[in-house]
Amino acid sequence: MNQAFLYDAVRTPFGKFGSGLAGIRPDDLAAHVVRESVARAPQLEPDRIDEVIFGNANGAGEENRNVARMATLLAGLPTSIPGTTVNRLCGSSLDAAMIASRQIEVGDADLLLVGGAESMSRAPWVLPKTERPYPAGDMALSSSTLGWRLVNPVMPQEWTVSLGEATEQLREKYGISRERQDEFAANSHRLADAAWNAGFYDNLTTVVPGTGLLRDESIRPGSTAGKLSVLKTVFRPETDGADGGTVTAGNASPLSDGASAAWLGSEAAAGILGLDPLARIAGRGAAGVDPQFFGYGPVEAANRALAKAGIGWDQVVAVELNEAFAAQSLACMDAWDIDPGIVNRHGGAIAMGHPLGASGTRLLGTLARSLQATGERWGVAAICIGVGQGLAIVLENVCANNAAKD
Hints:
By secondary structure, the chain is of the alpha+beta class.
């Protein structure tokens, strides 16, 4: 079996819903990170790219009809390069990386560009087709921005609750307090702001032309648990009883726009790109849970990925866990029984945003650069997925591995 390596990763700054990137089509966001990825590979002849695989969670708007292929064409790459789009909701671009790494390992490809794009600002309202023209009754539009729409009535109702209500049920099950959620969320903002100020994200991001958005737009540097504690709950009334709500706009990830991309390749890809590998894809894991407990999906996914890599949690020094909600992130961290200090050391989605299809590759790129910066060896990127799934990838810092061998 060949080995699969991550060579580079880049993303746009993530924009607020209806704000900094709202004027940019999702296929144009995707094309921008494709072009930037090519520009960052000094020796690349574009026709050496075996395939482009992108993730997208919506697919109902301007990114319809295979955004990976559209982005490749818009970026001006040869028409001979095939492209495919993956939809595993929030985990779409992480799934794209997993699919690509398998192609590399079995020898089907040497170089793939993976990534994802999402414009939640531009997600359309959708209207179901009718069985017959001109129905006599009223028809309701559904927003395709987030969550299930046009739900099959056969689905059990407990599975189809909102993501926020599902998170309330999860925090009840695992005893996650409002105070812990708000402190976690405030820390996400502090870490993200510090990382941007220190220049950590300079080599990981590319400004979208015509936008002027220079960094993640949702970061609030002055956030504190005290300030977040006064925000009203969204999905349940805030009461003193056991059923009182805890999830607020402050301890949940915001609706966002953005795109991300990464080069994955075999050892031979180093010569094709003119880049040294950053990390090896050492393990992959996918898991399913009851849909209403979707936020717990990363727990078993990461455990499976670690088992595939042949290591344990005691060897992991960095974790990039997508912060869909503070409560679900804390539940996963508690289950893994890990040091909170190794999780999202450069901030997370609560601060930076969560453009669904783009978040997985953001996690991978941040994790690889974090390991590179510290010289540490093992890291985990994990993400929860609506309708009850989780994905995870274990990365091994190539330089740290070589040092260990020496």
